Amino acid sequence: DGGITQSPKYLFRKEGQNVTLSCEQNLNHDAMYWYRQDPGQGLRLIYYSQIVNDFQKGDIAEGYSVSREKKESFPLTVTSAQKNPTAFYLCASGVGFGNTIYFGEGSWLTVV
Amino acid sequence: GIQVEQSPPDLILQEGANSTLRCNFSDSVNNLQWFHQNPWGQLINLFYIPSGTKQNGRLSATTVATERYSLLYISSSQTTDSGVYFCAVGPGTGTYKYIFGTGTRLKVLA
């Protein structure tokens, strides 16, 4: 099936540990995105990538890192520098400029 | 950066009622989408509508780009329409960036 796959769906980590969230798409989309959503809040852009080997910071990039070595993959690392990492993380992809973006099912990260 | 405000923030309807959700944005945009986030967190595409009017069943949307707003109409609401509605805008040429609005939380009562 075509789509966007995020894993894991639920993740628990101890404070101070780095965590990597996976996002894979088989839609042949150029653009990929990571958003963070806190309970009862909207979506805030962390990073986005318009093409392989290139990515740009969003509005809340501090404490996060990404890579885009393959067109289909855009992993997000939540580092120990992120002060409040507990949140719902959503990955999206799109064909590119002037087109719809589509979302994966999200990953719930809890840091204790 | 561009600001995206949605109104009302919360809305409670009786099943069968109609509603209008509004999205205002502070600068010109080249992309605009409406999403529905269901209670399980999944974001579902409703419309890609940078300008003009579209309809899909009981839902329709209108964007007036020159006046920097978009409207989402829900007619004959059902309990399954409950959730949060977001608009997202792409600010301009040369970037694929999408910024989300503040959301409207809708609850439809049986």
Structural account:
- The complex is a heterodimer of chains A (112) and B (110).
- Chain A is an all-beta fold.
- Chain A is built from no helices and eleven strands.
- In chain A, strands 2, 4, 5, 6, 9, 10 and 11 form a seven-stranded mixed β-sheet that branches.
- In chain A, a hairpin with a 5-residue loop joins strand 4 and strand 5.
- Chain A is globular.
- Chain B is mainly beta and 110 residues long.
- Chain B has strands at residues 4-7, 10-14, 19-25, 31-37, 43-48, 52-56, 59-64, 69-74, 83-90, 99-100, 104-109.
- Chain B is built from no helices and eleven strands.
- Chain B is 0% helix and 56% strand.
- In chain B, strands 2, 4, 5, 9, 10 and 11 form a six-stranded mixed β-sheet that branches. Chain B has a five-stranded antiparallel β-sheet with strand order 1-3-8-7-6, with no helix packed on it.
- The mean pLDDT of chain B is 94.
Largest protein interface, residues of each chain = A-B, 29 and 25 residues
Radius of gyration of chain A: 13 Å
Helix and strand sequence of chain B: EEEEEEEEEEE
**Could you describe the largest sheet of chain A, including whether it forms a barrel?**
7 strands, mixed
Give the strand content of chain B: over 45%
Order of helices and strands of chain A: EEEEEEEEEEE
Beginning-to-end CA distance, first to last residue of chain A = 35 Å
Helix content of chain A: under 10%
Oligomer: heterodimer
Rg on CA atoms of chain B, Å:
13 Å
Which terms would index this structure?
heterodimer, A: mainly beta, seven-stranded mixed beta sheet, B: mainly beta, 0% helix
Q: What's the layout of helices and strands?
A:
The complex is a heterodimer of chains A (112) and B (110).
Chain A: E1 4-7, E2 10-13, E3 19-25, E4 31-37, E5 43-51, E6 54-57, E7 64-66, E8 76-78, E9 87-94, E10 101-103, E11 107-111
Parallel strand pairs in A: 2-11
Antiparallel strand pairs in A: 1-3, 3-8, 4-5, 4-9, 5-6, 7-8, 9-10, 9-11
Chain B: E1 4-7, E2 10-14, E3 19-25, E4 31-37, E5 43-48, E6 52-56, E7 59-64, E8 69-74, E9 83-90, E10 99-100, E11 104-109
Parallel strand pairs in B: 2-11
Antiparallel strand pairs in B: 1-3, 3-8, 4-5, 4-9, 6-7, 7-8, 9-10, 9-11
